[in-house]
């Protein structure tokens, strides 16, 4: 799978899924079960950090070293291994907010800022390449047209992450005497400004995505799940800004985004269940490639042994 030019990129969704579990441990289990749930969330988060950093560093290198990549083959799926570090950074801000030890919270914040620095700048580089690909080679095929929403992922999650980290830094830095007095307040203010800039950038890609799907008729497939995460994190960033300002505009817009995400989730879930029942949704191109390679290898071995694969003798070339 690591050698497949497309399927390998989806390994980045593994740490992203784990980060969601970490967040729900904090939101649900910590208030109900106390300190041991906090330790569980922190331990799971460190595992997520290792997985996210590994995918962000190794998978792009595989693209450079193994694959023969052309500009026309670039897709927004290149963002998936990179976004995993941004998601881990956001989860780090959530976990740090409930850690009772300020020093542990500080370590978590520092690592989270580093993860954010690994992900967001690299994601912007990929977005530039992807924009160039769209302008030169037009829109992606209709089967993967939903991928045009993926650029919202690093921008929306990056905006939420930097806000959450600044919010926690404002509380943790004074307790640990980190940097200079007021450093936490500075990070908090800068976090909101950076989030607002990323949010504006996200509006550009949201327009491109909506315009792209309006020009295409595309069948339901697993790619439709690409609707939920990008729009979801864009919604989270919007609602977080509504809390920080506070702003009636962002509150209303965040509520509208939330309704859209929920409706899309219901539609995608219904389509997925239907596809599972009819067995029409399960298709893995990498598995098909492996089957072809396996059959070719067995044929070659049979020819070398002098049989036709059924145990009967055949003429050797």
UniProtKB/TrEMBL annotation:
Q: What is its main location?
A: membrane
User: What are the TM regions of this chain, as residue ranges?
Assistant: 9-36, 42-66, 78-99, 105-132, 144-166, 186-210, 222-242, 248-268
InterPro entries documented for this protein? SLAC1/Mae1/Ssu1/TehA, Sulfite_efflux_TDT, Voltage-dep_anion_channel_sf
Instruction: Spell out the Pfam families in the cross-references.
Output: SLAC1
> Which membrane topology term applies here?
Multi-pass membrane protein
Q: Which UniProt keywords apply?
A: Cell membrane, Membrane, Transmembrane, Transmembrane helix, Transport
Q: Where in the cell is it found?
A: Cell membrane
Q: Which domain of life is it from?
A: Eukaryota
Q: Which family would the database say this protein is a member of? A: Belongs to the tellurite-resistance/dicarboxylate transporter (TDT) family.
Q: What is this protein called?
A: Plasma membrane sulfite pump involved in sulfite metabolism
Q: Which organism is it from?
A: Lithohypha guttulata
Q: Give the encoding gene's name.
A: SSU1_3
